[in-house]
Design the sequence.
């Protein structure tokens, strides 16, 4: 079976929201706890969470989960630092890994089935990048074979995994994720998502 790990990126400071989005209540638990449980129920062998801003406060809300926690001291650099930090820790602790899925904590409509579909599409097509398609774009959650680890580890600043996806079109297959465009950056976003629960 394809040995896939998952890195859940949750290191941001939620500036536009004005409070840590990781601690927002969603389906009777914190948003981050909900996303960890979603990831942990998937076919992924290992789930690793990257924390940065407000990490002590956030840790208290996820103590009951089974995920491994990594602290990104360079979280202020941007998304790339969390990708590098999480991937390096995953590759070190899980040396037999074949690939990694990156997901973020503020796309609450990510489901366990969606994560499993990324792995199943990889197995069915042999493509080395499987991305989610939504709102006329493609992005995360996305699966990358280990052949892309060196490129992912070179990302800088605000660059995300989407940069690698867009540079390697021939290697990419997609799965539909119609609700993928809904994420939480503002209080208004949160209210819209709560109304769809």
Sequence:
């Amino acid at each position: 079976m394809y040995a896939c790990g998952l890195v859940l990126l949750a290191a941001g400071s939620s500036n536009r929201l004005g409070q840590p989005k990781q601690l927002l209540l969603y389906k009777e638990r914190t948003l981050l706890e909900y996303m960890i449980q979603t990831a942990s129920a998937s076919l992924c062998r290992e789930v690793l969470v990257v924390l940065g801003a407000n990490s002590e406060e956030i840790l208290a809300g996820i103590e009951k989960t089974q995920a491994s926690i990594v602290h990104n001291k360079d979280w202020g650099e941007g998304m790339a630092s969390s990708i590098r930090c999480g991937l390096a820790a995953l590759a070190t602790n899980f040396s037999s890994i074949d690939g990694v899925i990156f997901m973020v904590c503020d796309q609450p409509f990510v489901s366990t089935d969606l994560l499993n579909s990324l792995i199943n599409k990889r197995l069915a097509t042999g493509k080395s990048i499987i991305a989610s398609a939504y709102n006329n774009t493609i992005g995360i959650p996305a699966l990358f074979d280990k052949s892309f680890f060196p490129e992912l580890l070179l990302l800088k600043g605000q660059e995300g995994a989407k940069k690698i996806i867009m540079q390697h079109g021939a290697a990419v297959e997609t799965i539909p994720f119609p609700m993928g465009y809904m994420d939480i950056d503002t209080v208004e976003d949160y209210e819209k998502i709560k109304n769809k629960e």
Remarks:
- Helices lie at 31-40, 55-60, 79-93, 112-125, 149-152, 161-167, 187-194.
- The chain has one domain: 4-194.
- Residues 183 and 189 are 7 Å apart (CA to CA).
- The chain is about 30% helix and 25% strand.
